[in-house]
Amino acid sequence: MATLPTTEELKEKYATASSAVRKYIASDELDEAVGAIKNSYKLHLDETEQLNTALEAVFLGVRPAAEFPELLKVALEQNSSAYDAVLRDVNEKIFVAFRRKMQEPEAPKPSEATPVAIKVAPSGQAPQGAAQTAPSPAGSIKRIGEQVMKQAERVEVNTLGVSAPAPEPKKYPTTDPYRESIDEPPK
Q1: What is the pTM of this model?
Q2: For the segment 29-76, what is each residue's pLDDT rounded down to a tens digit?
Q3: Domain membership flag for residue 136
Q4: What tens digit of pLDDT does each residue of 110-136 get?
Q5: What is the 3 state secondary structure string of the chain?
Q6: Is residue 122 part of a domain?
Q7: Which range marks the domain in which residue 29 is found?
Q8: Could you give the CA distance from residue 166 to residue 72 in angstroms, rounded to a whole number?
Q9: Residue 40, C-beta contacts closer than 8 angstroms, at least 6 positions apart
Q10: Angle at CA 75, nearest 5°, toward 70 and 81?
Q11: How many domains are contained in the chain?
Q12: 83-106: per-residue pLDDT in tens?
């Protein structure tokens, strides 16, 4: 029978895992999927923790993926009636989602973008066919910032995040006879 790995084993493998696997293990996407499975099948806290450990063991390569059904049986020892349904949901919501995410090409970050070389004619004039003026990135950022500020000036938002004015507090015609007034000294 398969056994769940120890925390030390997981920590060792986590340090050497790829950044994509580390990101997915720490992602909100995985937490939400496990939370949905926990709520759907009313898993106990310890069962959910063992499910997380089994998932991390497979993602980090501590245990082979073929062992996951056995690891899930260990994790759900108290809730064996839900085993088949949980296994199906884990496959659909976690493993298939992870495979899709790994197949998607990752967009380069602005800091990782490759610079474009611009050829300049020796006489200081632009090469033939090149645009005479190019918008500067600093100018476009400045224009966007000015537009945002103009929009912000038009809309005043109160502290509640609602654009409507805050209602005035109610003023009662008489004071409560059972309370001492804050403004007046006691008699």
Answers
A1: 0.55
A2: 999 999 999 999 888 888 889 999 999 999 899 998 888 888 888 888
A3: no
A4: 555 455 544 555 555 555 554 444 454
A5: CCCCCCHHHHHHHHHHCCHHHHHHHCCHHHHHHHHHHHHHHCCCHHHHHHHHHHHHHHHHCCCCHHHHHHHHHHHCCCCHHHHHHHHHHHHHHHHHHHHHHHHCCCCCCHHHCCCCCCCCCCCCCCCCCCCCCCCCHHHHHHHHHHHHHHHHHHCCCCCCCCCCCCCCCCCCCCCCCCCCCCCCCCC
A6: no
A7: 7-103
A8: 54
A9: 89
A10: 85
A11: 1
A12: 888 899 998 999 888 888 888 776
- Amino acid at residue number 33: A
Residue 121 identity (one-letter amino acid): A
| In a domain? residue 47 | yes
Residue with tokens 């006691």: 186
Whether 88 maps to a domain, the answer reads yes
